[in-house]
Prior knowledge:
8 helices; 6-stranded antiparallel sheet; mainly beta
Amino acid sequence: MFSAEGGAVTQTVYADDVFAAWAYNGTGSAQTIVSGQNISGFGGLIKIKSRSNGSLDHFLASTARGVNQKISTNTTSGSSSAANSVTAFNTNGFTLGSSTDVNQSGQSFIAWVLRQARGFFQTVSFVGNGTTQTVGHGLRKAPGMVVIKRTDTTGDWAVWHRSATTGYYLLMNSTAAESNSSAATMFGNNKITVDPTSSIITVGSHSAVNALNGTYEVHIYAHNTDSDGLIYCSSFTTDGSGKATVAIGWEPQALEVKPTSATGNWIDLDVIRGWSLAASDNQLYPNSVIAEAAVASGNPMPGGFEFKGANSTTYVYVAFRRRNKPITSGTQIFKPQVRVGTGAVAIVTGFGFTPDIIISQGEASSSEPPFLTDRLRGPTMELLTSSQNAETAYANDITEIGMDGFTVGSGSGGHANTSGKTYTDLAFRRAAGVIEQVPYVGTGVARTVAHDLAVTPEVVMVKNRTTGGIDWATFYSDATKYLALNDPGVGGTSSTRWNNTSPTSTVFTVGTATSVNALNDQYIALLFASKAGVLKIGTYLGSHVATNIDCGFAAPARLVIATTLDYFGINYWRFAESAHGLANEIGRLTTAGAWETGGLAPFATGFTLTTNNSFNQSAKYYLYLAFA
Length: 628
């Protein structure tokens, strides 16, 4: 989020407005990609690459050159006509024609969509003069990276990066390390190199950047260090094992990175294709035509990212901030669906948003218990909400989380797609102020864990991913007590769960218990907070009498998760959702195979407790999370 001026108007701009990594499947017929950015109104750049076809070039379309025009970072070719490719720039994305370059039937593609905005990104064009000149831009921030491509004929992709060695440049179409050869004729005045400023870029006489009467396109990426900045350009050096932890102040959704001290590919990573805590990540290489490759690359995290690459090597990078537009409706972050398994690969869609977290449960099936998977850990990595088990990989359950749903495999040996069985899927989107996930590594010593929820969480659920036989730990209200999601009989008083310290808007605290902080064990935390009209977290006293619970919603709740709040008794975590109807089947997160009927009914601004004991046992206090 930042303020960008448009004439006399100041607008608040969020990551969702100016950037998207958008995965799609080629159809061979015209299709419109609704990625959410107003490219026709503000201008911008669309970078497309087939993930699956290693013979299709990177395809860059820009408003500077117009529709049906192609340049490719993996070649030195100039701009060329590409009929039926990117045929329109729209107010909410772009339109594709039938061209194989961008829409080959049966192939998977990724598009990075960059909308122009001051303090974020701009693309400009100019005509070379063969000597030296300055090229104006309206970024209003000192650039972090500048990429220049000659468009009328062949030429290298010249790259200036603020964190490359002073006086050195890179080539985007090459694996070469940074170079200072003829550097003053690239980004300079032919005598000395000159760094770009917040208003101009200086180019020398090199034909790659300023040949007489040559035409050029410039991509200018800001380096925005403001707390609400959406883009960050810097460098890091890996240790002797090839690892680096990089702090930028927020969690990125995409990363472009290049080694400068050694030869190596440019690497594009994004969370949509798979940049996660999983063992490997899906890399694409702007300098190469090859298809997506699975390589361990690190992962995003609150405040920055971890990277895995070559040993003891310096890299430069551009990072793009995670979606951060405020949520105004529950339908933007949650939807339940009911489906019947097929035993064959299938795509489940219709959620209306890009999900990050999926909870799936086979109804009344002890062999297919409720499990949680998510984009951050990798979609094949499951945690059973009803079990002490460590994280386990299931290759045939949810295999990919897409733009509007997810893909299920054959279901063989798993929990998600047995032919003829009915499943309930709860899809959630991570959103500041409502739902957040935090991965962390245990230290064995009481500590704080940073989070990006941006408000104080009311409920925190933690699971040890590494060690089996360990309960989930759940916090609500009282940092001296805990509940377990998986076991109705576990809970009580303990200083080793939350170290008797309540969470804040920036951190939560864990003690020394194995369930939350064993040395070197991997953990995932889910954080929840109330937001008006979206999520209500609260308590009520059961009475076994029909009672309306007013959540302040504009319509009945679509999901209610509730448990008795008895730290020394029996606490089943139950849920009811609108796909079945709140008054119909009730699922349990605590145990597999146990489904009930009744318990809740719709209420105009929330939900109604019936006389069913599932949600309304007399004289019992309940904790609930209700989603609008």
